[in-house]
Amino acid sequence: MTMMMMMLGNTTRTTASQLLRRAAARTLSTEAAPTMVKLNFSLPHDTIYKGASVYSVILPGAEGEYGVAAGHVQYVAQLKPGVLQILHEDMASEPEKYFVAGGYAMTSEDSVTVRAWMNGQWTVAIQNCRIAIGNCVSRLLARTPNRT
Length: 148
Hints:
Blueprint lengths: L2 H26 L8 E7 L2 E9 L1 E6 L2 E6 L5 E5 L2 E6 L8 E5 L1 E6 L3 E7 L2 H24 L5
Parallel strand pairs: 1-9
Antiparallel strand pairs: 1-2, 3-4, 3-6, 5-8, 6-7, 8-9
């Protein structure tokens, strides 16, 4: 056995031992386990949530849909086009839903950060709708007599 193999073997044992100790400490801890996760959710042009406490988030991962709640393992995933769901309370409430065309999600034990984007065509269509609605409202207000 080479010296390098002996060093790597020892490091692996130490790392596994440390992980087991940490897990046991968490299990035996008298502190209550966290029930909420911090959500950071942003698009290239807007921030939807920054540090919001939510019960869980369901993400459309490239390898399959998955949920994130408090105590989740660290994980980085590419997002595929799909619906991102945010549950603000336990499963009793209706989830808040957003369509995302892709992006990335970075998960830690107490937070999830989502960087997503919408399809460029949808973004242009939404901006055009906002402009058209603003123009209609302006025309309606110009035609309505001022009643005081």
